[in-house]
Amino acid sequence: MIEGLLIGLSTAFSISNIAMVIGGCLIGTFIGMLPGLGPMSIIAIMIPVAITIGDPSAALILLAGVYYGAIFGGSTSSILINAPGVASTVASSFDGYPMARDGKAGKALTVAAISSFAGGTIGAVLLMIFAPMLASVALLFHSAEYFALMVVGLSAIAAFAGTGNVAKAMLMTIVGLMLATVGTSALFNAPRFTGGMMELQSGIGFITLAMAMFALPEALYLVLDPARSKRSGDNSKITDLRITREEGRQITPVIGRQSVQGFFIGVLPGAGATIASFLGYAVERNIASAEEQKLFGKGSVKGLAAPESANNAASTGSFVPLLTLGIPGSGTTAILLGALLALNVTPGPRLMVDSPEIFWSVIISMYLGNLVLLLLNLPLIPYIAKILAVPRNFLIPFILFFTLMGAYIGQNNSTELLLLVIFGIIATILKFADFPLPPLLIGFILGGMLEDNFARSMQLYDGVSFVWERPMTLILLVIAAILIVLPGLRNWRARAVQRRGTSTPD
Amino acid sequence: MTLDRAIAFFILLVCLLYGYSAWFVMDAQIPPFMARNPVWPSSFPKLLAIGGSFFAIVVLISPHKPKDEPDIDLSRWSGYNYGQALGLLALMTAYALTLLPLGFLISTFLFLMLGSLILGERRWIAMVLASGIASVGIWYLVQEVLGIFLRPLPAALGA
């Protein structure tokens, strides 16, 4: 581990890579504050830039910096104008916005930055400890287990990430997998489902799909419903970033607990930063003393520190399955996986053996990124926050333009732009009907690998017998089935009980 | 039929079509020497077609559960700016079609101008300045700094 750490240090501490971290964090914070552009869209926009850099370590360092910056930017807008850019910072607005309303915006931002810093740093330490352990187990896996593991990952994402309706989430996952089969198949190089269109031979660009699934519907919602982008108040005056010693003493245990809890929630596929932040908030409110509990929701520093440290630790935790198994547990890590594949890096247990410099420099860049956010972005926040004053009539065309550019630069093909518009409309309708979209994108990105491992196992075992001949595979597939069936069963039983009238409906 | 059932039904149709083309169209094209291979290009799609149809039917028959806090509030349905949204979508389509013939600079300038016009902006000088600076600036960044080629001028000018 020490050896790896040194490799990482020497890679990450080159002038150009430090510039990458700083630049990434600044860009991320800047764009992350805008309504409608969450970390997923920002990373998707930055991928063509990262690919042009060419060096996978540098590219990943840049994207990781953008990711942290975007999370921080999202917290800033939820504190200042009560408009969380992403779901994972909604809990931060519970106490952050009341603080800002009381004229303590600067203090709230400092608490948020310190909690994020601590959460991210503790998360990075835990990642450094657990990722190599998990990777050494994963090295024992064969194609059949990988296939099963991906099925488990996708089912878990559908079971936890959806809006409670597992069937809808599974349906979206399968639609994503189906979209992934469009193009030339790896087996026999046969064109599939292209409808004879040349443009579809190379498949659908994942950046296009990512933009269409996340950035475009959000921007269209902003247009449809002007109330969404309306400010809840103007607190742009940010003064006095200092916090008192007493407040520091209050938030320290909160940060410690929530960083660890958040990290482990983040490791689970599908759970991620949003659940971690809400759970962190709820846990801290429950264990606080009675008089502190009254402050929650009215500007409690504890209530702000909890979701902030939890969501940053969880974001770091979500790198564990990505870097060790090559399976993304969240939409954001799925997009990062797409970027890595485009850079010819296949994340997985071999990553640590074959290119340790990538793995370790990402970890080092996490420390660096957190440090940059604390030392550079925090003092700059009063200036960066000026972007929130850009009128919506100018902002929305720019957001739309960035989604178009992201799709175009990635593929250099204007058919891709038409696909973007079509998928964007479909995604908006799906969002209307409450179909979760991240499972679709994750399915799409994992589709190729899932099929490769499936085909390899089929060939090795001359049929589907690998399912029962390898006990590990069987166990994993059973787990996947349980994950899908269990929530449905519980709903069904709850309804049955309700029908009989033996229990009061809640 | 609620919107989510209508969508599930539509996806079911897509799955059936997808399955049909996997079973009948693709398998008919399999060269004989490959037919002995245990896995065909259509094997995985067949699994997906079965799984997709299954879950689409589950969504179709399961009771509709309204969301507690919908993103789109249907009681304010009439207050939404459909015109603007459709206008912007049409503008994006137009951008896709004109990007190559008109070149990056002109089409981007027009896109940003017309975009804010659709949203109701009438401060012409600010619009021209913002769109102009942005399109030239972004072109410079992408082409010169990142080194990704973007045709700046109309194709007819040979640029």
Describe the structure concisely for a colleague.
The complex is a heterodimer of chains A (506) and B (159). Chain A has 506 residues and is mostly helical.
SSE topology:
The complex is a heterodimer of chains A (506) and B (159).
Chain A: H1 2-12, H2 15-32, H3 39-53, H4 56-81, H5 90-101, H6 105-138, H7 143-161, H8 166-180, E1 183-184, E2 191-192, H9 206-224, H10 245-267, H11 272-287, H12 290-295, H13 301-317, H14 319-325, H15 331-342, H16 349-354, H17 356-384, H18 392-411, H19 415-432, H20 438-461, H21 466-469, H22 471-500
Antiparallel strand pairs in A: 1-2
Chain B: H1 3-28, H2 43-61, H3 82-102, H4 104-118, H5 124-145
Describe the protein in words.
The complex is a heterodimer of chains A (506) and B (159). Chain A is mostly helical. Chain A has one domain. Chain A contains 22 helices and two strands. Chain A has helices spanning 2-12, 15-32, 39-53, 56-81, 90-101, 105-138, 143-161, 166-180, 206-224, 245-267, 272-287, 290-295, 301-317, 319-325, 331-342, 349-354, 356-384, 392-411, 415-432, 438-461, 466-469, 471-500; strands at 183-184, 191-192. In chain A, helix 10 (245-267) packs parallel to helix 13 (301-317) and helix 11 packs antiparallel against helix 13 (301-317). The N and C termini of chain A lie far apart (51 Å). With 159 residues, chain B is mainly α. Chain B starts with a helix and ends in a 14-residue tail after the last helix. Chain B is built from five helices and no strands. Chain B has two domains: 3-65; 89-157, no CATH class. Chain B has helices spanning 3-28, 43-61, 82-102, 104-118, 124-145. At the A-B interface, helix 3, helix 8, helix 9, helix 18 and helix 19 of A face helix 1, helix 2, helix 3, helix 4 and helix 5 of B.
